[in-house]
Backbone:
């Protein structure tokens, strides 16, 4: 199986979600199913069917998280330096609009573009890997080709 790169923060967040699902959500849904069973006929019991559906979702998410965490390769960005690689916090300027953006390159399970966490498999991250400060990068995006200049690279 292929290892899944992940930052320590991403690993901790997934572990916390798994713990929440196992210790809080799972017992709560078991209780909800038991309460719904007491209401009688299960064929027409909306609470029971809703609770069972939620239980299926929770159990599926638990299995998914356990699988991801078992394959995780935690990479500490504070021990890295040099050209852009996994874990780098990169500040870019769009060469057309002069808009600055800062992203950290992270694993796909912790990516969140609104929080500035860029999936390592995204077109922008793939184009940035190996680049140095001052380099220009052309990225093919669904919206067309964009040109960026690398302003800074930090590993924190």
Residues:
């Amino acid at each position: 199986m292929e290892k899944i790169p992940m930052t320590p923060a991403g690993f901790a967040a997934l572990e916390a979600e798994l713990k929440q699902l196992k210790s809080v959500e799972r017992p709560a849904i078991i209780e909800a199913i038991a309460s719904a069973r007491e209401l009688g006929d299960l064929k027409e019991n909306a609470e029971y069917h809703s609770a069972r559906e939620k239980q299926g979702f929770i159990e599926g998410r638990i299995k998914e998280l356990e699988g991801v965490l078992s394959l995780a390769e935690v990479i500490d960005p504070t021990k890295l330096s040099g050209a852009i690689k996994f874990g780098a916090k990169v500040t870019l300027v769009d060469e057309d609009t002069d808009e600055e953006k800062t992203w950290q390159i992270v694993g796909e399970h912790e990516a969140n573009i609104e929080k500035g966490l860029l999936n390592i498999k995204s077109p922008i991250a793939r184009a940035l890997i190996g680049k140095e400060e001052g380099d220009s990068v052309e990225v093919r995006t669904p919206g067309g080709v964009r040109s960026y200049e690398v302003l800074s690279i930090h590993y924190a």
Q: What stands out?
A: The first helix runs from residue 8 to 37. The beta strands are 4-6, 72-74, 89-94, 100-106, 117-119, 136-141, 144-154. The chain has two domains: 2-72, 75-153.
